[in-house]
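Q: Predict the bound structure with iron/sulfur cluster.
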Amino acid sequence: MKLTLEIWRQDDAKDKGRFKTYELENVSDHMSFLEMLDVLNQDLIKNGEEPVAFDHDCREAICGTCGFVINGVAHGQVKRNTVCQLHMRNFKDGDHLVLEPWRSTAFPVVRDLIVDRSAFERIQRAGGYISARTGSAPDANATLIPKSEAEAAMDFAECIGCGACVASCPNGAAMLFVGARIAHLGFLPQGQPEREERAQAMVSSMEREGFGACTNFTSCEATCPKGISIIGIAKMNKDYSKAKLFGGGKLGGK
Ligand code: SF4
Ligand code: FES
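A: Predicted complex:
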């Protein structure tokens, strides 16, 4: 198939950036989307032009490294999918595709389709963990967890930190990501002792990083490749309210 690709090109965070249009022929529907961009880049290099920079690592929808906007949708039109698992069989001959980086003040563009998501790491470091020494693996039945709660924790643990939720939100909110981290630990017994402290520390970090606030558009949930539920945001708000009422503790002070 033949495609027209309109791709955002930007040298660095200071550059204003611009769209550039490329025509690509002989695209096989067996290719993945990133393989199609690999082919474009080979052509660009052959012609002495700079290749299009895009992030990727596992290409198996597990690491959260890939991600950009295709025709206005984070990770593209296929639901519950990352861009690395998007395949060209989902497109047709003659399609015009517009590729842009995640657009959020908290995610400055590094180059072309790559943004700096280190803000997520700083939020995680603020409190997305348990500080108790876990030691060696305990007996499987030492701490009993109801199946429904173990499953809920696993559902929230599926977040891969890709940032599509931020890119989809009109407010640039990171609440689905933070809510997923908080709900994951909040459903488990091991997460209880620092539950409110964790919420206060992570929410404070999120605010410092310049992310917006949730106003219930729910576009984050709609585009999340892992189907993370906005119930995580409700759990985050509940824990944060309790922290505000009863004090933040030591994590909140960091
Ligand atoms: S909540 Fe979903 S969209 Fe947001 S970072 Fe996690 S996996 Fe990506
Ligand atoms: S490259 Fe790892 S999730 Fe896409």
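A: The radius of gyration is 20 Å.
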